Structure formats: C-alpha cells, structure tokens
Amino acid sequence: MKIMVTGRHGQVGWELLRSLAPLGQVIACDRRDLDLSRPESLRAVVERLQPDVVVNAAAYTMVDKAEQEEELATTVNGAAAGALAEAARDAGALFVHYSTDYVFDGSKEGAYLESDATNPLNAYGRSKLAGEQAVRAAGGDWLVLRTSWVYGARGKNFLRTMLRLAAERDALNVVADQFGAPTSARTIADVTAHVISRALAERRTGAFESGIFHLTASGVTSWHGFASHIIDAARTALPVGAIAVQSVKPIPAADYPTPARRPVNSALDNTRLEQRFGVCRPSWQDAARCVLDEALEQMGAQQLSR
C-alpha cells in the first residue's frame, strides 16, 4: 500500500512519517514536490504516484499574517485541499485532511460537536472552512479531522516559544481567558494512523462513510495553564539557572491584542471519533510530557554546549 503525505517538514507531516510507516510505503512530499499555491498542478502528482491514501498535512498556518494574505491562505487551505481531494477521488484513494477549531467562533459554553454551526472569526478560520467545504464537494472517500492548539518538539509553536522565553525573561504574561485542548503533533499522527487503518478495513467491507471528526487530546486548559505546565516541567528537568522566569502572570486576551481574533472556547467534543474508530486519546498533560521530554533534552544539550 502507498500512502502519500503532504507537508513532510511540518509538525504533523514530520510525525506522520513515523506513525504511518507500519501501514505501508510512505511517500512524503514537500513544497518542491507539491506547490499548494498552484492547485491546478496537484493532480499530476497524484496521478503519477497512484497512492492508496492521501494525507494532506500541508497548510497555510500563519494565523495573524492570514489577515493580510487571505487570498493566498484560501488558495492553499481551500482550493488546494479541494484539488487534492478530487485527484484522490479519481485515483480511488482515501483522502484525509486536517482542519481546525478556528472554524467556530468560540461562543458556545460546552465542547463543540461536528454538527455545530461554523462561524470563523478570522481569515485563517475562513480558509480552513473553505477547505472542509471543498473536500466535501469533491466527494469520494474522505475524512476531515479537526484539531486544536497544535504543538511539537520541532517547528514554531507555543511550547517551544514558552521554553525559549522562560530561559530569557524574568516574567511572562500569558492569556488566561481562552480555553482549548493543546494537542501534540505526535498525538495527531498516531491517532491518524489508527483511523486510517480502521477506515481501510471499512472500505474493504463497504461500510465506510465519509465525514468530519474532532481529534484533540482530552481535557481543557487555558494558554496560561499550558504555559505554567511547560515551565514547571522545564524547571524540574533542567539544571538550576536554565530557567530564568520567576512568574507567569494570567492576563485577559484584551491585554494582548493580535491582528486575528481568536475563539474564547476551542474545546472540541471527540465522542464521534472515539465511537466510530475506537480511539483512546491521551490527556493533554500526558501528551505534553512526551513532547517536553524531547524538547527539554534538546534544550539541555544546548545549555551544556555553551
């Protein structure tokens, strides 16, 4: 079996190379192979590779910059997703695509269901919603996995930023009135591999149904809660003096304005994913511990090399 993965150098794409390897031959593509800003060029790549599964982990992810580049974000996250879905459909392949909590406006009090009305607050959310709609319109066999607050031991993300700032500053101010489930790229990749295995079995028996599913770690915290967890772990694991920060102050989002508005509530209900595919999700704390072990090992090595 051949599995085509886009975004090989991204946080999720990188982890997928490991998680999907037991299922078959993984063909990893980067921007040199696939230019998602040119959706018309994507079909030829899928036709040449003839994969059994296409996993689209590539995306425009610069949330604030998307406010000025909404057309490009929508091309990459919307039109390109649709083009890949159409090509996968015509190749008879299962298509797996990632979306985001930002398709919701965050006004709901409880966790969002897949069936809840979407209403993105920012350009990035609108571009990802366009991708969901394009994948659905393409037809074929597809799965859209919505996730939230993605981080990993590599790339640009909240966890790595907090570790860097904690080593440089005496105090940090972190937003405490936005809530969600920090979800590691490793968790997303591992669950994706499990879901694909189950979905392929369903296809063989004719029981497969396309759909949107929420995929996050379990539990909910604030950005401040996540930052505090990261810094506590770093202070325990690293040599004395490696962490400079003495206080992590909770602040309202209004005190930290950004070009793109963020939802207050990003909690996603995963019941549908669990029931359909038999998924057992880790808590956000347990998942973070695995990533922190790797990130702190890197950080400690850097400290020793100075």
UniProtKB/TrEMBL annotation:
Catalyzes the reduction of dTDP-6-deoxy-L-lyxo-4-hexulose to yield dTDP-L-rhamnose. GO terms for biological process: dTDP-rhamnose biosynthetic process. Signal peptide: none annotated. Its EC number is 1.1.1.133. CDD domains: dTDP_HR_like_SDR_e. Keywords: NADP, Oxidoreductase. It catalyses: dTDP-beta-L-rhamnose + NADP(+) = dTDP-4-dehydro-beta-L-rhamnose + NADPH + H(+). This is dTDP-4-dehydrorhamnose reductase. Its cofactor is Mg(2+). Pathway: Carbohydrate biosynthesis; dTDP-L-rhamnose biosynthesis. Coiled coil: none annotated. Binds 1 Mg(2+) ion per monomer. The keyword ATP-binding does not apply. It comes from Paraburkholderia solisilvae. The gene is rmlD. Belongs to the dTDP-4-dehydrorhamnose reductase family. One of its GO terms (cellular component) is cytosol. SUPFAM superfamilies: NAD(P)-binding Rossmann-fold domains.
